[in-house]
Amino acid sequence: MAQEHVQPAPVAPPVPPAIPRPRGRPWAIFLWVAALAVIYVYGWQITKINLGDLFTKAYLVKPLVRDLLRPDVLTWAPRLQGVEVPFSFAAAPPGPPPVQPAAPAPATGPRLTLSTANARPGDPLTVRGEGFAPNRPGTILWRDQSGSSAKAAEFTTDGDGRFERALTVPDLIGEQHTLIAQVTLEGRMLRPSNTLNLVFFRVIETIFLALMGTTMGVIFAVPLSFLGAKNLMARGAAGSIVYYLVRTLLNILRSIEPLIMAVVFAVWVGIGPFAGVLALGLHSIASLGKLYSEQIESIEPGPIEAITATGASALQVIRYAVVPQIVPPFIAFTIYRWDINVRASTIIGFVGGGGVGFLLNQYINLFQWQAAATAVWGITLVVAVMDYFSAAVRERVI
User: Fold this and answer.
1) How many Å apart are CA 380 and CA 206, to the nearest integer?
2) What's the predicted TM-score (pTM) here?
3) What share of the chain is helix, strand, coil (3-state, %, to 5)?
């Protein structure tokens, strides 16, 4: 029996999807473009943008750029030979003033002795030195209890390296002082500049300023973050009220710039790093509190439901269901905030918040651009190191 050949049914070609037509009218788009043009033209005029000044006034910035590329890091200083001895304003015992070495005299090297180690302002004082380089100029410095030094006299050693100089005890701050004798030797030596030393210690201060501010922020932000997490607090009327109060407080604090806070605290507690710590700490509370609470709100609800089903208390739910999920991101947020605070501490130093920013502000006001360049490069180095450190820690934690 012959099989009948069945023709396949023709397949209709696929219908292409309909392309949605843009909504709106052409005249509305034209109005939007015209409005944006007017806004930017007015913005160009009100901000006084003049691109030609970038070229015609380039000569004004050349000295500044040159000094910024030549920071005051090393300096050629004269070779010095010096020794120092203590001196007190305490009353001297009655009787003739003996010649007393103010410090144990070394067997070799420069030695300095005083006619008396105790005197009052205005009393005579004889300073004798020996063991110094022969026939060299020198200076006697008087350093008071505050650490400030002032030139008391000049001298020149004889052929045997000795000198003797009569002084009058000055009226200086404090009771305990130090006399320093320095002789200038031949030649010079390359050493770190005074600017580099100042910037180094201010940079260290900046790092710890940011560290203490961040620590203060963490201590207060962690408990506030649990009170500001909606999935934990919004389960009743009282919890909802606490949630909205905490979130409102965090939003208000976060809206105030650390610079403004530093001005307030500089007036409150005085100019210095303590004001900077308070400003950074208060702003860190708001920022970290928001980040922490949002991280708590984004955790997986499964562990919370499982622990709650066992009849656990609220604290037990937080301990066993919430904390294990939030510790790594909390650490990452904290390190990132420390990185931000290192940068911010530079700016708040301009308004009295301490750190290297305070020193940089002084250099800029005095037009000491090479010294300012040292501070700028110090800040750049610290920020780069902190960025690398924080990135490495976040990679290990997350």
Assistant:
1) 12
2) 0.69
3) 55, 15, 30
